[in-house]
Amino acid sequence: MRSKDKVTKDFEFVDGGRTFFCSVEVPRHAGMLPWWWFRLDTAESTRYAPFEASANDTEQSVQERIIVYYAALLVTAARPAHQRPVWQKPKRPALPGEVIPAA
């Protein structure tokens, strides 16, 4: 792969009618590796950092990984929330010969 194919700057792409704005940012803590960040045109304040940046990253490879990551987010968000039943005190068992009225 030629070095000019490597990603060193911000870029954007459109997938599924959404525009993704991508950038590499270095964390503030010394010694941490840079991460890819992206946001959507529909969400001004929500950003995602799905994976570390690599020297071998290309726009195409980053785009593919972001699309897979975002699709997984959408699947997770679409799942129904598991609702636990309301806790109730266990009913006491009936003694032999005892009739418990229905509630």
Q: What labels would you give this structure?
A:
elongated; 4-stranded antiparallel sheet; alpha+beta; single chain; 103 residues
Give me the secondary-structure topology:
Blueprint: E1 11-15, E2 18-25, E3 35-40, E4 47-52, H1 59-78
Antiparallel strand pairs: 1-2, 2-3, 3-4
Structure overview:
The protein is of the alpha+beta class and 103 residues long. It is 19% helix and 24% strand. It has one helix and four strands, in the order ββββα. The chain has one helix at 59-78, and strands spanning 11-15, 18-25, 35-40, 47-52. Strands 1-2-3-4 form a four-stranded antiparallel β-sheet, with helices on one face. Strand 1 and strand 2 form a beta hairpin. It is elongated, with a radius of gyration of 25 Å. The N and C termini lie far apart (74 Å). Residues 1-5 have low confidence and may be disordered.
Strand content: 15-25%
Q: Helix fraction?
A: 10-25%
Tally of separate helices:
1
Q: Which structural class do the helices and strands define?
A: alpha+beta
Quaternary status of these chains? Answer: single chain
Name the overall outline: elongated
Main sheet: which strands, in order across?
1-2-3-4
How many strands, what sense, and barrel or not for the largest sheet? 4 strands, antiparallel
Poorly predicted runs are 1-5
Cα-atom Rg, whole angstroms? 25 Å
> What is the succession of H and E elements?
EEEEH
In short:
The chain has 103 residues and is α+β, with helices and mostly antiparallel strands. It has one helix at 59-78, and strands at residues 11-15, 18-25, 35-40, 47-52.
